[in-house]
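#structure-requests
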Amino acid sequence: MCEWKERVDSVAREIERYLESHPQAADSLEGITTWWVSKQRIRHELEVVRAALEQLTHSGIVMSGSVTGGNDPVYRLNNKSH
């Protein structure tokens, strides 16, 4: 299958998943690109980034901590590893 067709099929699946989650959604080409497709990719990438941070934390390269008043951990270089 050609690269263009694969890309089109991939985006079509992303739009379909978005519409399954938001059946009342309607938007312009630009809005769909900005909000629907980007949102699906971000959701997928969030899991990849989470796994990467866990790997880096486990190996000691990155450390996580908390910020006063914040619920989510904050990640930074573990200076003790260098």
